[in-house]
Amino acid sequence: MAGNVSTLAYVAKHRQRRSLGDPRWMRFTLIGAALLFAGLFLVVPLAAVFTEALRKGWGAYFAAFADKDAQAAIRLTFLAAGIAVPLNLVFGLAASWAIAKFDFRGKSLLISLIELPFAISPVISGLVYVLLFGAQGWLGHYLAAEHPLFPWLQQWLIARDLHIIFAVPGIVLATIFVTFPFVARELIPLMQAQGKDEELAALTLGATGWQTFRRVTLPNVKWGLFYGVVLCNARAMGEFGAVSVVSGHIRGETNTIPLHVEILYNEYNTQAAFAVASLLTLLALVTLVLKNLVEWRHRRALEAAAASDIRQFAT
Amino acid sequence: MSIEARNISKHFGSYTALGGVSLKVETGRLTALLGPSGSGKTTLLRIIAGLEFPDVTADPTAGRVLFHGADVSDMPAGQRGVGFVFQHYALFKHMTVFDNIAFGLTVRPRKTRPSRPEIADRVNELLRLVQLDNLGGRMPDQLSGGQRQRVALARALAMQPKVLLLDEPFGALDAQVRKELRRWLRQLHEQLHVTTVFVTHDQEEALELADEVVVMNQAKIEQVGQPQEVYDRPASPFVIEFLGNVNRLAAGESRLRTPGKDVLYVRPHDVDIQHGSAIRHGLAARVLHIFSAGNYGRVTLARADTGEHFEAEVARDRLRDLQLKQGDDVSVMFRHVRLFPRGEFTEADVRDGKLTETKAGAVPAHGAGEHI
Predict the structure, then answer these.
(1) Interface of A with B (CB under 8 A)
(2) What pLDDT is stored for residue B360 in this prediction?
(3) B103:A207 CB<8 A
(4) What is residue B318's predicted lDDT score, i.e. its pLDDT?
(5) Are residues B221 and B315 in the same domain?
(6) What per-residue confidence (pLDDT) applies to B367?
(7) Is A201's CB within 8 Å of B92's CB?
(8) Concatenated DSSP letters for B136-205?
(9) Are residues A45 and A101 in the same domain?
(10) Does residue B218 sit in the same domain as residue B276?
């Protein structure tokens, strides 16, 4: 009798174990495949960047950054990102606020427009800028025209000697275009999921539109916004295609970090190329750490609030 | 402060949410807007709050909202002095309970904003009022549904509103909490006497809690009255069906026939069962099912002539005396019925098998006295 019971218990236990998951070999195969894939495509290249960069030692590594052209490229990259990211932050916030919290005509068109840069190859976007602002493009024709539409504007532009293509403004414009959707795409679904109730509540409590935005909407999306900015920044600094087309590759003037890496690589200066590339890689790692840190702190803040509450109960 | 809504219409595209509704709520009253979903009750509440705006029509007197006689139709929600509690509370997720309640005070312009200690005093006072004294430091997601509801209420009360509007205040809570909170809200109303309007689809909630019930259906108001009045004297087939259990029987083709009246309504507790089919005035029926719980037994019957099913509520003692069994043939008497020709109605008491009209609708009653 007792034997029967224990057998039954064993069978029940065994069955439960079996029903919990797939066979062991299948689990190991799947996990193994996932690890192998991640290792092959993520970890190995990442390690390769740093081993290649440090192949000739720390001296050679830092020498790559001492180069005047390299420093110019770094400065330009930070400038382009420094302009593009804040602009996209403001635009992305405004656009997603409008889309998620208000109803208006042409809303779906606006959403499609925001996504456009994702759908177009960066090279094409670069070419569009060349077509618009290049010497052979619309702007070039306008400047060369004998009887232009607004003579004063032509005079003003010529007097300024404003170059867009093969110059810094072109690089900034191309970067803005390519990174256009990042913040908005992150925020729109988030804001839509949150709905309008909290804003309406703030409204009935007498808050102005600005107070509602600053004290209710913004805090609710701050992590999403931060994440969008991090992604936007990574892309702004790493952008190659569009910038490559409008840059003209003038050393020390219109080269960004990715373009500088390409030049070094093409000149068989592999170690220096990887050294400069490691800067971008480090940037990516820092953003990842930052993101996790922010999430962790947010969680901790919540737990702390709960803990203080329990203390209150105890006293 | 009294609330008046004059001839309010609201369309969303081709959908009519409100079709020319007028309503008056007296000062200090607790009023329920009762109706099924899609009846327009929430839209009406939001229009009173200023969260939604009525359609603009050619008639300048239509689509107006008045508080204590003053037109507030063009006033933004924040200036109407209205406390609004949302169905899902809409608490500010990233703020503590304390900051949620203080919000309405802290967003005031500097001139009228109370000082920090004054705000703290007011918030603590409100926390005591809603019985959440120790929870000021919590985040909303650390609260239960009932607690969140009370925080939302405290937040709305912080600005000392002259009107309190609640959208399905107990809709998202489980039955036990719901009952408790309902009693508590009634108490709170007695204490504060703020003119309060709440929306609900639960007839029990409306009848139990409100001073006055506004029954709405399909973008219109069907009836306004005190709970007892609305329950006892429903003005339309919709109201009688929506409020409480009722049997709906065809009156057209049987001994129940009254010329011009097609539909007969009888509450289960107005149905009396007698043994045998020989009773002179009775309606022949068969017992299908008996279930008794508490003081009352519920008997499901089928009419012999039309086969329609209906229910009777019989006191337990009476049920024992009758010794009913499934499949028994019985005679049924109705104590009180309501008869409706298409759209209109007659109310009648039944004595000695005779209909005695007590109240008639717009169409004159025909053939009163028909035996049942």
Answers:
(1) 197-198, 200-208, 211, 215-216, 219-220, 302, 305-306, 308-309, 312-313
(2) 44
(3) yes
(4) 86
(5) no
(6) 28
(7) yes
(8) TTS-GGGS-HHHHHHHHHHHHHTT--SEEEEESTTTTS-HHHHHHHHHHHHHHHHHH--EEEEEES-HHH
(9) no
(10) no
Residue B60, both tokens: 């300048």
Question: Is B15 domain-assigned?
Answer: yes
Indicate the number of domains in chain A: 2
Chain A, chain B: beta-carbon pairs less than 8 Å apart = 82
Owning domain of residue A14 = 1-53
DSSP letter at B341 equals S
ipTM reported for the complex, 2 dp: 0.78
Three-state DSSP class for B242? helix
pLDDT at A309 over 60: no
Note whether A35 and A112 are same-domain residues: no
C-alpha to C-alpha distance for B81 and A116, rounded to whole angstroms: 45
pLDDT at B372: 36
Statement to judge: residues B24 and B166 lie in one domain: yes
Whether A256 and A220 map to the same domain: the answer is yes
* Residues linked to residue B83 through DSSP beta bridges, in sequence order: B164
Tokens describing residue B259:
């010329």
Question: Residue B17 in contact with residue B54, Cβ under 8 Å?
Answer: no
Q: Enumerate the residues of chain B whose CB falls inside 8 A of the CB of residue A215.
A: 92, 103, 107
One domain for residues A27 and A70 = no
CATH number of the domain bearing residue B335: 2.40.50.100
Residue B301: which domain range? 247-360
pLDDT averages per 10-residue partition of chain B, 372 residues: 92 91 93 93 94 88 91 90 92 93 93 92 93 90 90 93 92 83 90 93 91 94 93 87 86 57 83 74 85 86 87 88 86 83 58 52 32 34
**Whether B322 contacts B275, CB under 8 Å:** yes
Listed by number, the residues of chain B in 29-58 with a beta carbon closer than 8 Å to a beta carbon of chain A are 49-51
Residue B92 lies in a domain: yes
Average pLDDT, chain A: 84
**What's the pLDDT at B347?**
61
The answer to whether A294 and A223 are in contact (CB under 8 A) is yes
User: Beta partners for B350?
Assistant: B355
Q: What is the mean pLDDT of residues A95-115?
A: 89
